Amino acid sequence: MASSSFACPFSALSVSLLLMLSLIAVMHFDKCEAQLSPTFYDNTCPNVSAIVREQLLLAQHSDPRIFASLIRLFFHDCFTNGCEASLLLDNTTEIKSEKFALPNNNSARGYEVIDAVKTAVENSCPGIVSCADILAIAAEASVHLSYGPHWTVPLGRRDGRMAYFNAASILPGPFDNVTVLQRKFAAVGLNDIDLVSLSGAHTFGRAQCFTFRHRLYNFSNGNPDPSLNTAYLAKLRQRCPDGGNRTVLNNLDPVTPDVFDNKYYTNLQNLKGLLTTDQDLLSAADTNASTAPYVNLFAADKKVFFDSFVKGMIKMGNIEVLTGSSGEVRKNCRMVNGASGPQFEIRLRDVEASSAEEI
Fold it and tell me: pTM for this structure?
């Protein structure tokens, strides 16, 4: 009885405390969400989205895979200390560029397209639109122009003045299993449904042979990955022979490689996920309980996938944003304001020469 009489008031106190903490958390979340607004540039640069789209369409004429590359830039920027365009900064004596971190070097691409977008935006609205917001708008436009969903992008991010090479070195990668992916997504506030829906960005784009060749020849005791469709395995071995060119590009989605749809998930059901990070979402025997149902859900209903993807993109776009008086609006996305130019131009040529392929 004594234990029972003690438990009741304690439980009430606990509930009250939890409710108060929840309210504080919600208020904080709302405050963070309120910092960004779809109408942020309505008075200062109302045509910014149209300008971005125009430049992306021009780029796509000569580079059919640029849309996938641009959404990947947004992913890699947001996962590295937040969406503040640190990925776009070139090397200087003070900055160790994220472009040369392992997940980005010889892989991330599209920087010159962002440069062109920034120049066009600056010509129309000088000093107004941040590089971080340009990345966010470009990501949405890349998806929509590839027949994917459209959403209104929350805006108002400002650009950081630092790069985070070490953080960029541990981005989610093609060799990560589900457990590792869950941990990396959770570290930035994204849950399992975010993980599976955002992985759907692999419904377009390309990957180099080295990112999955271990699955073809030596996954376990010299045998291929048993979760690979045998006919698909044979095709991949033709494109990526053992000891062959490690940089040959392969479609992440062998069915509709340049269209943003839900074929990525039906590919997983047919054991045609290209990367370990892809197929493991469905096939990992000991860790798929929380991710496999979402794969099957999105495979069955494209609208459900699109809705979830949009929510995930907006959520990811809010990671550690700089707003208000924090950060700055860069004049040049490759350098912080006040930096000198020539050293960046030299690095620009180096980076573009090494970024011929993407994951």
Answer: 0.85
